Amino acid sequence: MIRVTVWNEFYNPHSPTQPELAVYPEGIHEAIASFLRADPSIEARTATLMQPEHGLTEEVLEQTDVLLWWGHITHHMVADEVVERVHKHILAGMGLIVLHSGHASKIFHKLMGTRTVDLRWHEDGLLNRVWVIDPAHPIAEGLDDHFDIPHEETYGEHFDIPTPDQLVFVSWFPSGEVFRSGCCWHRGFGRIFFFQPGHETLPSFYNENVQRVINNAVRWAYRPKRGAYITGETKAL
Ligand code: ZN
Questions:
Q1: What is the pLDDT of residue 13?
Q2: Domain spanning 2-114+181-221 has what CATH number?
Q3: What is the pLDDT of residue 109?
């Protein structure tokens, strides 16, 4: 079994102004966890910002093979101590999948190490055409040469990230932008994947190709156990 934790800020979920609930009545985290649970080899739980330690205790992280991260307006409210803890687990081999506006999270910034990790964006629900540019990559398994998401927020270059170790998808939008929308990195023993779709007022997490990519990414990011490097002064072999 691959043990997945889906983290969502899910801030103020009972407010009528919470736009996410109109599309995802149980929240984005439950929508993602529920399609992952349809896969008998995945065990998915959820965690949210307002839980003690944001639901990401040492115990939860020890039992998480792959962590998914969605956030938008509360990145600054995530405690540094929790970010440090998540970072330590990623370097030891926990996978991380960062979705959409999760690009602005503290954990993604810490892993990327660039100045802003920012991008160009406009919110008008245009078509999002996702081109598969590495068809042999495991995250592209089962996809055609491209797929369309009828309405998404537009993300565009420049995306202030280090050059990805593997680039799986590039998105195109009718307003002319292109965007590196599926990016892989390795940090320590951990595998990290960023995937662009997933604006909170649009139903992209119900899209079967988006679901397939996230499912594939969970498998790609999974490592059966944590690792540790041997460094420092050692006996001559
Ligand atoms: Zn958005």
A1: 73
A2: 3.40.50.880
A3: 98
